[in-house]
Structures are given as structure tokens and as C-alpha cells.
Design a protein that fits this description.
The complex is a heterodimer of chains A (338) and B (340). Chain A is 33% helix and 20% strand. Chain A is built from eleven helices and 14 strands. Chain A has helices at 19-33, 58-62, 74-86, 105-112, 115-118, 147-151, 164-175, 227-239, 257-267, 282-294, 325-336; strands at residues 14-17, 37-41, 67-69, 90-95, 128-133, 157-159, 181-186, 195-198, 210-213, 218-222, 244-248, 251-253, 270-277, 303-307. Chain B is α/β, with parallel strands linked by helices and 340 residues long. In chain B, 43% of the residues lie in helices and 11% in strands. In chain B, helix 2 runs antiparallel to helix 11, helix 3 runs parallel beside helix 9 and helix 6 (132-145) packs parallel to helix 7. The chains are: A alpha/beta (338), B alpha/beta (340). The interface between A and B is large, with 43 and 46 residues.
Chain lengths: 338, 340
């Protein structure tokens, strides 16, 4: 399906792009625009062009000095990105799967996220870490959605786009942001959708949610790979006469609370949906903030849908840990009748 | 250090120029006096900080400082007092940071383990053992991409050679021929564990061969020899000849922290090291060999002692950050940070 983007594309030259192609375009333009942009990661140079082909062609166009294959060594990939950033560069490091960020947590959490603060502002770390949430076809160590850990780490921004246009615009914003950014992709989104995306420079500001669908009865707040299911659920609900407003957060840090709160103040009902574990997940923070700010107006407590508190079971087992569209439909129905 | 030890490998013609000898001694004396004072201030409660003594490293750090320029980048550790002083960070800024005051090198919010000083090329120090090495590799990548000429050095203890980040950085630096000098400050102790109890081979420099990297080992209690070896390594980096691993063998002259006990350190071993206490030994060698006039050494001592007193007085009378400063420098923009 094609998702509607809130970005005004009138006047801009566009082309139909998948998310992978849109990200490739963002990186290509960044490399061309600024000699200080560097790419580091495993298998990112041609002929491989990245295991998901996101960086295909970039080393051929911009050289292997700037688009660098690295050893399978995530601590040194992120450490080198941090050091190059201290030396004035804008490195984009690719960590093949989000799960692999765990072996380089020290560099990201103890160093990238803290150097601006610990140096009294002398040493910002303008790196972007691109990483990918896999699916359960890969089992439990290639499919975790760990964004809450980084929301809980002051000093690092977190983006998780759901559309090709946002993927391009948010990635460009991350690359040129002066703070460290974690840019989260989902393997299910790389090639599943196509939409018109500006072929030239395109940025989506960090910290601005998008209202994907206007509605009056319930606000559904989500992001990333859950968005297609949420929008499908909203279609189903519309057929039942229930009007759901859908907010795509797009970035989790900074999180656009004004947009969330304005919507919920109107609908008085909210469901938060994410692929991260429900317990202590991003939805807990969002639900708590809505409750603190809008307790008197709420018609019903905020509902959270997230992954069950289990390691990801292997896909072929038939077990499903994630909320699906039917879960969203059910949750919204319950709220709408309250 | 004795004249015999120095005379054999080095002709007098190969000694550093007078200004460098004086500066090295000044750094060593400053570090020795400041280290003692910092431990005393911490003990007295006037400096509420975890402070990691550097006694024993004075010669290694003075030599490193003498072969680097302010444009060269340095990454150090939590045991960083000697590195910061040798790299040229003003002593007032160092001591104010140790006290959490506004004029500190990180405006008081970094503390003893987190010293940054961009004008001096001190790019980071880290409280996580070994983590500075991959970051230094990135700085060296930056230097290489900038077109060469700038060297990067990273200091770390012998204990850091056990951790994964060390191996990843050694591999990457050698693979990419980075202009990086790995300066292993081998003080023979990983916190409270002696080197032989954690390393199957204590010849740390020999490991570099596995990465196809140049390496050398040097007596870190010999500042002149250390100056030569580090100087050669920095020259290789500047010339684009790749990284070098230098093992500087010293001994930790005090405990792991300012409050640690000595019960686990063999007294004979410690006494033998204390007999070679770097600053006084170097001073005697400078005077006895007529390298620096005794009157000049007296002048340096007096200036150092005055400077250290001044830095502590300055720090202890400087303001703490305003409460609102707690939200500064999380991100470039503090708007979203407040209220979270």
C-alpha cells in the first residue's frame, strides 16, 4: 500500500521510490553536498552495496575512501565514527541489525551520547547510526526493536520513519544534525512501499509528528513498521463508522508531544501501538504523559499495544509476538464504545 | 635513572633541546606535586571527586607531550592528570574541572574522568577501560582524510589490552594505515591485579606483530629514551607510515584510586620503583649531567609550586554551575530537554 505523506511535494520534482531507494538518494545527495560526510559499515561498498542494498552505487560514485567497508567490529565502527566526528566529519555508520548495536552500546551510550555534555559543549558528536530491525524469519537475535533503550539515554536522537519520503527526509536531517542520531529502519519497509519522493534535497525536521489520517473518535499513535497495520485498521474501523485519527511520531527523540496532546485533547481516547516490547516500552512514556496532561479530559485510560514480553519466537513456529491490525481494531472499538 | 643507562643508547647530540628538557621537567614536577595535592584535597573533603593517581607516569606523559603539537589529537583515560598537563591544558582549567567549577575545562560537569580541551587537542578522556582506542582510530581517520601531517595518540593502561575495543582498534588502525600512536602506559597493575595474573604474555608490544603493526617497548622511567621512541612513532604517523604500538613500562607508585590501600602490592617491588621516582630522578640527571643549571631547576620548582597553589586556590574559589546549566549541552538545543 502507499501511505500518504504530509510533506507538500507540489512543485518538487519527484520519482516513485521505495524506502531503500529513498535512503540511497538521501545519502548520495549528502555525500555530494558535503565532503565531510562519510559512510562506514560492513559490506556497504560495491559490489555488495549493503546487505539490504541501501548503499548500492555510492562507493562507485563517491569512492571507497568515503564509503568504507569495515571489519565485522561494531565497537570500532561506532568508535571510528565518533572520532571522525570529533575531527570535523559527519559520519554515517551502518550497523547491519539493531541487535548488533548491543555489542557497541558502550560507544553509543557512554561516548556519543555524552561527549557534548561532558565536554561542556566543546565536542558535539554529529554521527548518524543507521540500523535495521529484522523480522522473525531471522529469529530472536535479528528482530529486536530496542528504541526504548535509546529514548532512555539522554543525548541521542531517535528516528523511525514509516514511509519512503520520510525515510529520505529524516535521514538527511539526521546526517546534517549536530547531535548523534539513531536512525532505525525495518526490513519489512525497505521494499514494501513506493511513493513519490522528491529527487532533490528533501528534509523532514526531527521532532515533528505527522497526522496520517484525520479522525474524531480515537487517536492512534504509532511509528515505523507498525504504521501500515495501523492505517489498515483505521480503514476497517471507518467501515464500521469509527473515525480514528492516526499520528505517526516519526521521531521518538525529540518526541512531538504537542501534536499528540492536541489530538488526544480532541478525541479524548488514545491507543499507542509499537513493535517494541510493551512493558516499559515507548508507549509507557507516551501514555503517562497523556495521563498527566489530559487526565480530566480522558474518556478512557490510554491503551498500549506492543510486543509481548518474550524473546521473538522464530517465524516458522507460527507464534506472533507483535500487535497486528486486528489487535488495533479491537482496542479502538473498545475505546470508541467507552 | 643513571648516566650509564642513558649514555649507552644515546649520544648527547641526540638529546632534546634545552627548552624541551626544561619543559619535560616542568611537566613532571607539576604532575608529581599536583597529584600529591589532589589526593590530599580529596582526603580532606575539599575536592569531592574520584581521583585516579598518575604517580609513576610522569616521564611517559612528559615525553609524549614533548613530541606532540597542540594540533595533534590525544585521547586519554580516567587516569589522565599527567596527559592533560603534558598536552598543554592550562592547570587552572584542569584543577577547576576536578572541583566541578565553571572555569573547568568542561565547565565543571565532566569531572576527573571526563577532560576535554579543544584548544590543546585533548579530544576526550574516558572512564571506560579501552574505549578511547576506537575513538582515537576515528580521529586518526579524520587526520588521514584531511591529507596527513597531523598525528593522533591514545593512552591507555596495560589493563586495557585485555578488552575487545583494544583489539578492534588495533586491527582497524593497521588495516587503514592510520596515523595513530598507541601509547600503552604499562604500570603493571590492572586495578588490584598484577599483569602476570591476567595476561598469558606480559610482553605487550609483541602482540602488535599479529596486526602487522610496528611496535616498540621502552623503559617508561627513562624520559629521554621514551621521548626518542615516541618521537619516532609520531614521525611515522606524520609521514603516513601507519600506526605504532609503544609499550612504556612503568610502575604505579600509589594505589588504584586516591583512597586505595597498598596491601596487595609487594613492598620490595614498590620500593624499587619508588627509588626511580621519575621527577626527582630526572632532576638529578639534568643537574648532574649539566644539562640544566641547578639555579634554573630551582626556578622551575618554585614556579611549579606557586602555579599548583594558584590553581587550587583559583579552583576552590570559583563558582559552581548555576542550577539551570544542568540542561545545557545535552543537545545543541535545550528546548526539548527541559521538562522531560
Amino acid at each position: 500500500m502507499t501511505l500518504t505523506s504530509d510533506v507538500d511535494l507540489s512543485g518538487a520534482e519527484t520519482a516513485e521510490m521505495t524506502t531503500a531507494v529513498a535512503m540511497n538518494s538521501a545519502l548520495d545527495l549528502a555525500l555530494a553536498a558535503d565532503p565531510r560526510v562519510l559512510l562506514l559499515g560492513e559490506d556497504i561498498a560495491d559490489p555488495s552495496g549493503g546487505v539490504f542494498k541501501v548503499t548500492r552505487g555510492l562507493s562507485t560514485r563517491h569512492g571507497t575512501s568515503r564509503v568504507r567497508d569495515t571489519p565485522i567490529a561494531e565497537q570500532s565502527i561506532l568508535g571510528a565514527a565518533i572520532g571522525a566526528a570529533l575531527a570535523g566529519y559527519r559520519p554515517v555508520a551502518e550497523v547491519m541489525f539493531f541487535d548488533f548495536v548491543t555489542v557497541a552500546m558502550d560507544q553509543l551510550v557512554n561516548h556519543a551520547a555524552k561527549f557534548r555534555y561532558l565536554s561542556g559543549g566543546q565536542h558535539p558528536v554529529p554521527i548518524t547510526v543507521r540500523t535495521v530491525v529484522g523480522n522473525s524469519r531471522f529469529g530472536a537475535q535479528h528482530s529486536q526493536s530496542l528504541e526504548a533503550w535509546f529514548m532512555h539515554t539522554p543525548g541521542i536522537k531517535v528516528a523511525f520513519p514509516s514511509t519512503p519520503s520520510d525515510a529520505k527526509g529524516l535521514l538527511a536531517s539526521c546526517v546534517f544534525d549536530d547531535d548523534p542520531c539513531l536512525f532505525i529502519e525495518h526490513v519489512a519497509l525497505h521494499y514494501s512501499q513506493k511513493e513519490p519522493v522528491p529527487t532533490g534535497e528533501h528534509r523532514v525536521p526531527l521532532g515533528q509528528a505527522a497526522v496520517r489520517r484525520a479522525g474524531d473518535d480515537v487517536t492512534v499513535i504509532s511509528y515505523g513498521a507498525q504504521m501500515p497495520g495501523v492505517l489498515a485498521a483505521a480503514d476497517t474501523l471507518a467501515g464500521e463508522g469509527i473515525s480514528a485519527e492516526v499520528v505517526d511520531l516519526r521521531t521518538l527523540v525529540p518526541l512531538d508531544f504537542p501534536t499528540v496532546l492536541a489530538s488526544v485533547a480532541r478525541t479524548r481516547r488514545a491507543v499507542v501501538v509499537h513493535g517494541a516490547t510493551r512493558f516499559a516500552g515507548p508507549g509507557a512514556e507516551i501514555a503517562a504523559t497523556i495521563t498527566e496532561e489530559l487526565f480530566e479530559e480522558l474518556a478512557h485510560p490510554v491503551t498500549r499495544l506492543g510486543a509481548r514480553y518474550v524473546p521473538t519466537p522464530f517465524l516458522a513456529s507460527g507464534l506472533e509476538p507483535l500487535p497486528v491490525a486486528a489487535d488495533v481494531v479491537g482496542a479502538v472499538r473498545r475505546l470508541a464504545s467507552s | 635513572m643513571t648516566d650509564t643507562q642513558l649514555a649507552q643508547p644515546h649520544a648527547p647530540a641526540g638529546l632534546p633541546p634545552l627548552a624541551v628538557l626544561e619543559r619535560m621537567y616542568e611537566v613532571m614536577r607539576t604532575v608529581t606535586v599536583t597529584d600529591e595535592r589532589a589526593r590530599a584535597e580529596a582526603k580532606a573533603g575539599r575536592m569531592p571527586a574520584a581521583f585516579y593517581p598518575v604517580r609513576g607516569l610522569e616521564g611517559v606523559c612528559a615525553a609524549l607531550g614533548a613530541v606532540l603539537t597542540p594540533d595533534d589529537h590525544l585521547v586519554s583515560t580516567y587516569r589522565n592528570l599527567a596527559d592533560t598537563v603534558a598536552k598543554g591544558v592550562p592547570l587552572r582549567a584542569v584543577i577547576a574541572e576536578l572541583h566541578g567549577r565553571v572555569p573547568g575545562s568542561s565547565k565543571g560537569k565532566g569531572g576527573t574522568m571526563h577532560m576535554h580541551h579543544d584548544p590543546s587537542g585533548l579530544m576526550a578522556t574516558t572512564g571506560i577501560v579501552g574505549s578511547g582506542l576506537p575513538i582515537a582510530a576515528g580521529l586518526a581517520l579524520g587526520a588521514q582524510l584531511d591529507g596527513g601531517g597531523r598525528a593522533v595518540a591514545v593512552t591507555f593502561g596495560d589493563g586495557a589490552t585485555s578488552i575487545g575495543a583494544y583489539h578492534e582498534a588495533m586491527n582497524l588502525a593497521a588495516l587503514w594505515h592510520l596515523p595513530l600512536v598507541f601509547v600503552c602506559q604499562n604500570n603493571m597493575w590492572a586495578e588490584h591485579t598484577p599483569i602476570a595474573a591476567y595476561a598469558p604474555s606480559t610482553a605487550l608490544a609483541e602482540r602488535a606483530a599479529a596486526y602487522n603493526m610496528a611496535a616498540d617497548a621502552v623503559d617508561g622511567f627513562d624520559p629521554i629514551e621514551t621521548w626518542r621512541v615516541l618521537g619516532a612513532a609520531v614521525a611515522r604517523a606524520r609521514a603516513g607510515e601507519g600506526p605504532t604500538f609503544v609499550e612504556c613500562r612503568t610502575y604505579r607508585l600509589v594505589g588504584h584510586t586516591s583512597s586505595a590501600d597498598y596491601s596487595y602490592m609487594p613492598p620490595a617491588e614498590l620500593d624499587a620503583a619508588l627509588a626511580r621516582d621519575p621527577a626527582p630522578t630526572f632532576r638529578a640527571w639534568l643537574a648532574d649531567g649539566d644539562h640544566v643549571a641547578p639555579a634554573r631547576l630551582d626556578e622551575i620548582d618554585k614556579a611549579v609550586d606557586t602555579g599548583v597553589d594558584d590553581a587550587f586556590d583559583f579552583a576552590q574559589s570559583a563558582p559552581h554551575p548555576e542550577p539551570g546549566a544542568i540542561y545545557d549541552d545535552v543537545f545543541a538545543d535545550r528546548t526539548w530537554v527541559e521538562g522531560r
